[in-house]
């Protein structure tokens, strides 16, 4: 027998035990040694927070009242989990990629980081969860009284209100201690999750123990346990109708939308693969929880006196049978169910309240302050702690206000129907790109109003807003507006009725408004990120969410959108304006406006506004998230630009390759032609040498005159060979850069004189007229005299050789142009076709079928090489008559100075 | 009177050496350095044999050979082609066009004389 | 297959993956058919007599069957995952 005080001590011991587990798990997590804390088993067990006191006590109560109906509350989640591939997998991935902190955060984030939606979902969650928390307090209080009433005198037991208050206070303390230890980037709470997992084991073991005791201890097996049960007791005729489908749907949507379920399933998920395990393990847990519900209900009805509360059968059956230890275990199971739900719900809701309501308000009131990150973190923690206390206080007040009336199950279903209003916006948001913020808000608001009017308010039975008369007759007697028979749709279960209308209104408003409105830029980006989450690239993990706006943040944002150089220029210019010589400018209003305008040029005004205003205060979306948007936008923009550029580059490359290929083919052909040419040029003098040498050898009677002449020919042809070899060597030396150069002050007049003198022999017997203006030639250049002369000799020889005309002329014109001097050597011959204007400078190029007597076509390439080495250029000018080669040389500076002086 | 030989060769020294050795061997030798005048000269002087260089100014030896073989009273004249390039391609082109012999520079004088007398005997 | 790492092996794996995904998408639909469609009404009245009522046996059997199917699917997914990782 346990006294009241002993019961309290058991509770305190149990909570301390949980506390130690949570503490130990936190320590391990902090050391990074998570080990089995990260296992899929712990994940699955933490999801069993779905089974609250409502399940632990209420399922049996429901079974006693409504037969098999309770099963639908567990088959809905079963369908969702075995169908994890549809929705949960996507939610978990989105949650990880977007670093989602709560379901309100997810929805707000999906619809363009809308603060309004965040607030709406948060308010809805608070309103729907408050009765649920009250429900836990109520069942805990009931179980306390049921347990202790049987052993103690009534006057020693505190009233229900006092018990509930202390329970609420204790739970608040525990939750604050472990739920708000840190502002973790992904809002994970390893300590709490581990404690919840332990509680999950306790409640399962407790319920199974009671069940086994009932089936094999009280009865003699399953057949015996079910004997006497009738189809009427199972309500099979009534329940397998719309209500059955409605409850399955509600429980299925609840497992997705309930803030605490979202918290454990999505936010606390550390590994997507755990979901695969939970897909069968969690339904199995539910299955086991339900397995003995019916036998316990039947046993309660047969063993206990008429009028005993069916919601307490789990506790009262073992007590009635005198099994105190079992009863204590059952009590701890119920205690675990209630506490785990309250703790997780309070954490989830406090996160939502602080992130979506408190922080925006706080930031709005402190617009001008410099926001340091420590500042924000402490405010966040404080607001969460206060929110947790507030949630439990609300639950407690609700419990006191409603006086603990109403069966547990009905309160639970009302809450389910409330949070189900989030479902259309959520599912639409992750599968339908066209869903818009306005649509989601409209659907949520419309659904919420219908739910509140048709289900939530009537549950107070006339004590809140809607009077009992209005419930029965309709407001102001308008029967079409009766909350439980809207537009005269009567004869339905109120839950089915409310669900039908609220969901219909919600879905239609959501879809129609979505179709009619145009999403903002941010919404579109986020929509794409959510719907195509499996195709989008992922961000690296481990970035800490920072909820403060500093110049560094703005600078980083600007860098990501404008590029480092532009951002740097912009920020340093602004810093200069503010009178700072170095560092970043202060985030003044003026500067922020300027920045916004700059950003608008890149990402459009709407996005820029959203980004800058949110980074600079007024919003709670984290800077990291904004960076991601910025990256996405920049990526999309650069990607399309890059594609364009790449195709252009590809075309250009292909064109260049084609050109190069043509060129290579030409060069190859030229090389062949050249080798042939060299062969020809070498063989020709050799032929003469050999032939005459043979004549001299084979003709002993040759006269002296012939002998002398033939020897001279042999000598001349040998010289020709030598000259040819010299030219080839000359060019290869020039090209290899191993030539040594003299740098003298050289007079152009002298150079041209020398060149003309050298080519005099070539002009003998021709009627070529040379035109030159000696005065203009009085220019000094820095050059190697012999080399420069070589160039002019070559040009003049070419002019003599190829400038064939009836009255051939060669003109040498010198003009000064800035610091340069042009020397043009022109003939009036047939000229050179324009398409050959560059080829003439190639080695051994032959123009047409002209044989280059006395040379192998190396003259021009050598000349050009020489002029390049002298810092000038040699070109063929496009002229209408004849050929004009222009030598451009830099004028010697010292010489021109001295000339001036 | 010896048989007449026309040398078409633009390199004066080679033409001179050829003329010298053929002259001494008893032939009646004439030399020409321009490809464009070759056919006219052949018609005018109707030589018994032509020594034809490939690389000539204005008209290549191949073109001259082709026109010569195309018809007329001198279509069957023996032609000894000379080239300084010495590529197999040139040799086969020359044979296709109907050159009687093809020799690569530098040649030996004895070889020239042997070939010429052979062609004179055959022709 | 002679060459499990080759194209045929890859195609085989992709085919398996697609079938697994299809099965994962199908399973909840099958579950919904057995749990919330009027099929359930077939067992409504056959509860007379001794022992556990048929509708209870039906509900819990379907439930357990779904769990087993989900467990098999999940095992295949996880095995495939480790294959791909390794």
TrEMBL record, chain A:
Transmembrane segments: 6-25, 37-59, 71-88, 116-137, 157-180, 192-216, 244-262, 282-305, 325-358, 379-399, 411-432, 439-457, 499-518
GO cellular component, one term: membrane
Reactions this protein catalyses: ATP + protein L-histidine = ADP + protein N-phospho-L-histidine
Residue ranges occupied by any Histidine kinase domain in the UniProt entry: 677-893
EC number: 2.7.13.3
Key word ATP-binding present: no
Entry coiled-coil feature ranges: 629-670
Pfam family, one: HisKA
GO molecular function, one term: phosphorelay sensor kinase activity
First-tier enzyme category under EC: transferase
Compartment(s): Membrane
Main subcellular location: membrane
Keyword line: Coiled coil, Kinase, Membrane, Phosphoprotein, Transferase, Transmembrane, Transmembrane helix, Two-component regulatory system
Its membrane topology: Multi-pass membrane protein
UniProt key word Cytoplasm: no
PROSITE patterns named in the record: HIS_KIN, NA_SOLUT_SYMP_3
InterPro entries: HATPase_C_sf, HATPase_dom, His_kinase_dom, HisK_dim/P_dom, HisK_dim/P_sf, Na/Glc_symporter_sf, Na/solute_symporter, Sensor_HK_Regulatory
Similarity-based family: Belongs to the sodium:solute symporter (SSF) (TC 2.A.21) family.
Descriptive protein name: histidine kinase
Annotated source species: Oceanomicrobium pacificus
TrEMBL record, chain B:
Keyword hit for Phosphoprotein: yes
Chain segments annotated as coiled-coil in the UniProt record: none
InterPro entries attached to this UniProt entry: Bact_response_regulator, CheY-like_superfamily, Sig_transdc_resp-reg_receiver
GO biological process assignments: phosphorelay signal transduction system
Pfam families: Response_reg (PF00072)
Record-listed 4-aspartylphosphate modification sites: 53
Keyword entries, A-Z: DNA-binding, Phosphoprotein, Transcription, Transcription regulation, Two-component regulatory system
Record CDD domains: REC_OmpR (cd17574)
Annotated ranges, domain Response regulatory: 4-120
Gene3D superfamilies (alphabetical): 3.40.50.2300
Keyword tRNA processing found: no
Any one Gene Ontology molecular-function term assigned to this protein's record: DNA binding
Protein name: Response regulator
Provenance organism: Oceanomicrobium pacificus
UniProtKB/TrEMBL annotation, chain C:
Keyword set, alphabetical order: Membrane, Transmembrane, Transmembrane helix
Keyword Membrane: yes
Domain of life per record: Bacteria
Residues spanning the membrane: 23-43, 55-73
The UniProt record lists the keyword Transmembrane helix: yes
Stated name of the protein: Uncharacterized protein
Lineage: Bacteria, Pseudomonadati, Pseudomonadota, Alphaproteobacteria, Rhodobacterales
């Amino acid at each position: 027998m346990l006294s009241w005080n002993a019961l309290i001590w058991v509770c305190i011991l149990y909570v301390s035990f949980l506390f130690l587990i949570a503490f130990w798990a936190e320590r391990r997590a902090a050391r990074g040694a998570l080990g089995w804390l990260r296992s899929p088993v712990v994940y699955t067990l933490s999801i069993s927070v779905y089974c609250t006191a409502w399940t632990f006590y209420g399922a049996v109560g429901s079974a006693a009242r409504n037969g098999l109906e309770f099963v639908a509350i567990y088959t809905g989640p079963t369908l969702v989990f075995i169908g994890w591939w549809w929705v949960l997998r996507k939610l978990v991935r989105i949650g990880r990629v977007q670093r989602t902190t709560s379901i309100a955060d997810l929805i707000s984030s999906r619809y363009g980081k809308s603060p309004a939606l965040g607030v709406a979902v948060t308010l809805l969650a608070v309103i729907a969860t408050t009765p649920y928390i009250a429900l836990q307090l109520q069942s805990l209080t009931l179980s306390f009284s049921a347990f202790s009433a049987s052993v103690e005198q009534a006057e020693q037991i505190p009233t229900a209100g006092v018990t509930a208050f202390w329970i609420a206070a204790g739970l608040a303390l525990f939750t604050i201690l472990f739920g708000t230890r840190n502002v973790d980037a992904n809002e994970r709470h390893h300590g709490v999750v581990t404690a919840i997992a332990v509680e999950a084991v306790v409640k399962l073991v407790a319920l199974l123990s009671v069940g086994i005791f009932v089936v094999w201890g009280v009865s003699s097996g399953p057949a015996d346990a079910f004997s006497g049960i009738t189809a009427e007791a199972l309500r099979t005729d009534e329940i397998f109708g719309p209500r059955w489908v409605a409850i399955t749907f509600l429980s299925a949507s609840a497992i997705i939308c309930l803030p605490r379920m979202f918290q454990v399933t999505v936010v606390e998920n550390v590994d997507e693969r755990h979901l695969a395990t939970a897909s069968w393990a969690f339904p199995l847990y539910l299955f086991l929880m339900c397995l003995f519900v019916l036998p316990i209900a039947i046993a309660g009805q047969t063993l206990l006196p008429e009028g005993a509360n069916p919601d307490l059968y789990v506790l009262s059956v073992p007590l009635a049978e005198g099994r105190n230890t079992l009863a204590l275990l059952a009590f701890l199971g119920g205690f675990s169910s209630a506490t785990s739900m309250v703790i997780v719900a309070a954490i989830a809701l406090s996160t939502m309240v602080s992130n979506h309501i408190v922080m925006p308000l706080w930031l709005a009131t402190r617009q001008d302050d410099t926001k340091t990150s420590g500042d924000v973190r402490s405010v966040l923690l404080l607001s969460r702690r206060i929110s947790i206390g507030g949630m439990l206080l609300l639950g407690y007040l609700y419990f006191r206000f409603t006086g603990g009336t109403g069966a547990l199950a009905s309160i639970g279903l009302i809450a389910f129907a409330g949070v189900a209003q989030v479902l259309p916006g959520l599912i639409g948001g992750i599968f339908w790109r066209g869903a818009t913020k306005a649509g989601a808000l409209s659907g949520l608001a419309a659904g919420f109003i219908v739910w509140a009017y048709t289900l939530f308010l009537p549950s107070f039975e006339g004590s809140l807003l809607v009077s009992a008369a209005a419930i029965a007759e309709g407001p102001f007697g308008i029967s079409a507006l009766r909350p439980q028979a809207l537009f005269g749709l009567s004869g339905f279960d109120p839950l089915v009725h409310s669900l039908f209308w609220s969901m219909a209104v919600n879905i239609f408003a959501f879809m129609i408004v979505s179709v009619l409105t145009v999403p903002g830029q941010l919404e579109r980006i986020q929509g794409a990120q959510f719907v195509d989450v499996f195709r989008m690239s992922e961000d690296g993990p481990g970035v800490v969410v920072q909820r403060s706006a500093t110049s560094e943040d703005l600078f980083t944002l600007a860098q990501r959108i404008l590029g480092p150089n532009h951002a740097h220029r912009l920020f340093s210019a602004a810093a200069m304006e503010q009178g700072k010589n170095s560092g970043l400018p202060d985030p003044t209003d003026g500067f922020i406006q300027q920045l916004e305008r700059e950003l608008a040029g890149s990402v459009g005004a709407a996005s820029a506004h959203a980004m800058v205003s949110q980074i600079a205060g007024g919003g709670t979306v984290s800077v990291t998230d904004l960076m991601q948007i910025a990256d996405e936008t920049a990526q999309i923009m650069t990607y399309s630009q890059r594609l364009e550029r790449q195709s252009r580059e590809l075309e250009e490359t292909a064109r260049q390759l084609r050109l190069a290929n043509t060129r290579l083919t030409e060069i190859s052909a030229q090389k062949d032609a050249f080798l042939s040419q060299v062969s020809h040029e070498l063989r020709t003098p050799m032929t003469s040498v050999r032939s005459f040498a043979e004549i001299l050898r084979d003709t002993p009677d040759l006269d002296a005159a012939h002998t002398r002449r033939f020897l001279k020919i042999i000598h001349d042809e040998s010289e020709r060979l030598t000259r040819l070899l010299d030219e080839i060597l000359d060019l290869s030396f020039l090209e290899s850069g191993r030539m040594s150069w003299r740098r003298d002050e050289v007079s152009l007049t002298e150079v041209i004189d020398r060149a003309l003198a050298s080519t005099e022999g070539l002009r003998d017997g021709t009627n070529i007229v040379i035109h030159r203006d000696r005065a203009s030639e009085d220019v000094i250049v820095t050059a190697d005299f012999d080399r420069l002369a070589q160039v002019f000799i070559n040009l003049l020889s070419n002019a003599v050789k190829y400038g064939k005309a009836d009255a051939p002329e060669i003109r040498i014109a010198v003009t000064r142009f800035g610091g340069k001097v042009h020397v043009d050597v022109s003939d009036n011959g047939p000229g050179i076709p324009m398409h050959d204007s560059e080829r003439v400078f190639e080695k051994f190029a032959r123009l047409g079928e002209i044989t280059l007597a006395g040379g192998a076509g190396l003259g021009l390439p050598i000349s050009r090489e020489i002029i390049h080495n002298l810092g000038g250029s040699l070109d063929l000018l496009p002229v209408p008559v004849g050929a004009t080669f222009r030598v451009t040389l830099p004028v010697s500076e010292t010489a021109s100075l001295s000339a001036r002086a | 009177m010896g048989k007449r030989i026309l040398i078409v060769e633009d390199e004066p020294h080679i033409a001179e050496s050829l003329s010298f050795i053929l002259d001494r061997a008893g032939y009646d030798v004439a030399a020409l350095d321009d490809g464009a005048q070759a056919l006219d000269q052949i018609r005018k002087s109707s030589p018994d044999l032509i020594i034809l260089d490939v690389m000539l100014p204005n008209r290549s030896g191949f073109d001259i050979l082709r026109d010569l073989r195309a018809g007329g009273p001198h279509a069957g004249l023996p032609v000894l082609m000379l080239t300084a390039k010495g590529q197999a391609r040139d040799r086969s082109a020359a044979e296709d066009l109907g050159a009687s012999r093809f020799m690569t520079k530098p040649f030996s004088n004895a070889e020239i004389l042997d070939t010429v007398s052979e062609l004179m005997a055959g022709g | 297959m002679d060459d499990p790492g080759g194209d045929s092996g890859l195609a085989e794996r992709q085919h398996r993956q697609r079938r697994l995904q299809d099965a994962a998408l199908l399973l909840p639909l099958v579950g919904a058919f057995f749990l919330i469609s009027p099929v359930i009404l077939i067992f409504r009245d056959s509860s007379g007599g001794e022992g556990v009522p048929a509708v209870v046996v039906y509900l819990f059997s379907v439930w357990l069957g779904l769990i087993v199917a989900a467990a098999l699917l999940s095992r295949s997914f996880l095995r495939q995952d480790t294959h791909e990782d390794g």
